[in-house]
């Protein structure tokens, strides 16, 4: 999946790919860890891209609400 670089102190890039009715969000942290979140809509991804604090929005709207898998 292609991830877009983002302006964030903790997150290096995010990407989204359609799969079925929703999609999969991938988040690459500056630490090198990569996580995927299943069931995230394209609108939620776009909202994340436009957020003034991507990390804060990720913690409040994505983490803990969607199935998470550590990829790396």
Tell me the quaternary state: single chain
- Label the overall shape: globular
The end-to-end distance, rounded to whole angstroms, is: 14 Å
With helices defined by DSSP (H or I, 4 residues minimum), what is the helix count? 2
Q: Estimate the mean pLDDT confidence.
A: 94
Q: What is the alpha-carbon Rg in Å?
A: 11 Å
> What is the makeup of the main sheet?
5 strands, antiparallel
The domain tally reads 1
Strand order of the largest sheet: 1-2-3-4-5
Which bin fits the share of residues in helices? 10-25%
Give me the secondary-structure category: alpha+beta
Beta-strand level of the residues, as a percent range?
35-45%
Ranges where pLDDT stays below 50 over 5 or more residues in a row are none
The ordered H/E elements are EEEEHHE
Strands, total number: 5
Topology:
Layout: E1 4-5, E2 11-19, E3 22-29, E4 34-38, H1 42-49, H2 54-61, E5 68-70
Antiparallel strand pairs: 1-2, 2-3, 3-4, 4-5
Describe the structure in your own words.
This protein is α+β, with helices and mostly antiparallel strands. It has one domain (4-70). Helices cover 22% and strands 38% of the residues. It has helices at 42-49, 54-61, and strands at residues 4-5, 11-19, 22-29, 34-38, 68-70. Strands 1-2-3-4-5 form a five-stranded antiparallel beta sheet, with helices on one face. The chain is globular, with a radius of gyration of 11 Å.
